[in-house]
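Just wondering, does anyone understand these tokens?
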Amino acid sequence: MNPVNLESYLLVGAALFVLGMVGFLTRRNMILLFLSAEMMLQGVALNLVAFARYHGNLGGQVLTLFVVTVAACEAAVALALILMLYRRRRSLDVSVWQDLREPDLEPVLDEEPLPAPPPPAPLPQLTVAGEEPADTPRETTHV
């Protein structure tokens, strides 16, 4: 059986990194940006493991363990931040958050307008205390 050579692993790792970079640069949704950054980290981790295996040492695997650990911590913090930002503005579009820029930078205007948010669903209303509800005849069934 012919083992897979180093170049194959490096190509897959580079493809993961490039796909993640393209996704990070072209998407506006915060969750997709986060997933694209994770894809870039996984591409780097695959290259580290491939080089470590090729050179016959464990340095790449140890560094990959650190990368995966930091990625897990980053995932928890990023998802908490995304939830808090969504609660405040009800949108995950990064163009909504222009006010988080540095004070000396001018906001960037998007050519593509955001779609109108859907109207909120009406909440159920209770009857006013003291009023009796309208009488509705009930059918009685005998068993």
Notes: The CA atoms of residues 90 and 119 lie 12 Å apart.
